[in-house]
Design goal:
This protein is α/β, with parallel strands linked by helices and 448 residues long. It is 38% helix and 20% strand. It has helices at residues 20-34, 52-66, 79-89, 121-130, 154-165, 188-195, 222-230, 258-271, 288-297, 308-318, 341-355, 359-362, 383-387, 390-403, 429-447; strands at residues 5-6, 9-13, 42-47, 70-76, 93-97, 106-113, 175-179, 199-203, 235-239, 246-249, 255-256, 279-283, 300-304, 322-324, 330-332, 371-377, 408-413, 419-425. The longest helix has 19 residues, at 429-447. The mean pLDDT is 95.
Length: 448
């Protein structure tokens, strides 16, 4: 079993388990594995806005250079922006320092391959095996030591890429509110909407190193909803810390999660003959209303285990162009190799502009079944024990029987946070909320 890599790279509390020493060793190992065929490898490094990024980027850079690879430091940039620039400039790999939607005290390291995709499990396992096991023969000297190269104008290049994805469509006449989560999208998101002619209102776009995701962004869109209700806007969008997720808010203040966004895009793409195989890819966490909408609107829904990497694997396997998660990771494979929150928002607004419909008018494809998600706080080292507990398995099975006629129960350990998520769908929101809280308490008690 791997000890470092989870479902989205390495993630932990910065300067406890995720130390500068570990970042240095991971930099060495990643460079040796991902750039082993290059004569003078070039690896791009980007980060979000949390305070610990400077420390970890410096350590990563030192590790990468110590094994003879050069570093191109892109500074603060959304994860999808890093993927774009890797391909554009022909880098051998990339590293994103971010803990995505997690609180500012956490941080993470995730690698991106030379073709812009996140790494498969086998490659991450190969990197992990090398961490702390670098030999003297792997360390060059003199002119063979790596260095930091000149940095391109990363934000400008990413913004130009985004504009081309929607054919530079004019957004004049639209007013867009943006919650940048005080994160990596705080520069790129306002820039692209403004350059395309929209009037913009920005929120949470003044990062100070500790306010990333703090009561804002796609995991906390409440402030954005209130803003929309008090101000006249065409639509609003909330991103997460590294800019690969997006939630939308319509002109009436109603939230659209990833399932709803994908349902709109699936119907639009199908109508234009662009939904390959008439199929969208989602995860087992997708709301049951999404599956019903697929049946009603004539497209298929392929479901995989939770994690955008598994969504992407299925998309590549079937040559499907649309996939994502309820959490707001949306992958538009004709344009991007990873979830891209800003691109997702742009695509929705482009559909609004082309059809002349409001976001609330577009959001009629699916009816969301009542769903509740409760996080049971379970330490990472207790997750396997708790999830394999026979008493807990019996309780989950009993709940599934209770809701099997018109709903479901889904319990899974998070791959990025010390929680086990209890998800229940059913006809009565009060009933399923009570049941989810009951199961969560059982899980937490078992973890003690």
């Amino acid at each position: 079993m791997r000890k470092l890599f989870g479902t989205d790279g390495i993630r932990d509390v910065a300067n406890t388990k995720l130390t500068a020493k570990l970042a240095f060793e991971v930099g060495q190992a990643g460079a040796l594995v991902l750039a082993k065929e290059a004569k003078r490898p070039k690896i791009m490094v980007a980060q979000d806005t949390r305070r610990s990024c400077d420390m970890l980027v410096a350590a990563l850079t030192a590790g990468i250079c110590s094994v003879g690879a050069d570093v191109i430091n892109l500074g603060v940039l959304p994860t999808p922006g890093l993927a774009v620039l890797i391909k554009k400039h022909g880098a051998d790999a990339g590293v994103m320092v971010s803990a995505s939607h997690n609180a500012f005290g956490d941080n993470g390291i995730k690698f991106i391959s030379r073709d812009g995709f996140k790494l498969p499990d086998a490659t991450e396992a190969e990197i992990e095996a090398k961490v702390g096991n670098i030999h003297a023969a792997d360390l060059p000297t003199g002119a063979e030591v790596g260095c930091v190269l000149e940095t391109p104008d990363a934000i400008t290049e990413y913004v130009e890429f985004l504009k081309k994805c929607v054919n530079n469509i004019s957004l004049k006449g639209l007013t867009i509110a943006l919650d940048c989560a005080n994160g990596a999208a705080y520069q790129a998101a306002p820039a692209v909407f403004e350059q395309m002619g929209a009037a913009i209102h920005t929120m949470f776009d003044t990062p100070d190193g500790i306010n990333i995701n703090s009561d804002c962004g796609s995991t906390h869109p409440e402030a954005l909803v209130e803003y929309v209700k008090q101000n006249k806007v065409s639509a609003a969008f909330a991103f997460d810390g590294d800019g690969d997720r997006c939630f939308a808010v319509d002109e009436n203040g109603n939230i659209l999660d990833g399932d709803m966004i994908m349902s709109i895009m699936a119907v639009y793409l199908k109508q234009h003959g662009l939904l390959t195989g008439d199929t969208a890819v989602s995860t087992v966490m997708a709301n049951l209303g999404f599956a019903k909408a697929a049946n009603e609107h004539g497209f298929k829904l392929e479901q995989v285990q939770v994690g955008d990497r598994y969504v992407l694997e299925k998309m590549k396997e079937g040559n499907f162009k649309l996939g994502g998660e309820q959490s707001g990771h949306i992958i538009l494979l004709d344009h991007q190799t990873t979830g891209d929150g800003v691109l997702t928002a742009l695509m929705l607004v482009a559909i609004m502009a082309e059809t002349g419909k409001t976001l609330s008018q577009l959001n009629t494809v699916m009816t969301r079944m009542p769903q509740v998600i409760i996080n049971a706080h379970v330490p990472n080292d207790a997750k396997n024990r708790v999830m394999n507990d026979t008493v807990i398995q019996a309780e989950i099975a009993a709940s599934n029987i209770k809701y099997r006629e018109n709903g479901r129960v889904f319990v899974r350990a998070s791959g990025t946070e010390p929680v086990v998520r209890v998800t229940i769908e059913g006809a009565d929101i009060n009933d399923i909320t009570a049941e989810a809280n009951r199961l969560a308490k059982i899980l937490e008690d078992a973890a003690k």
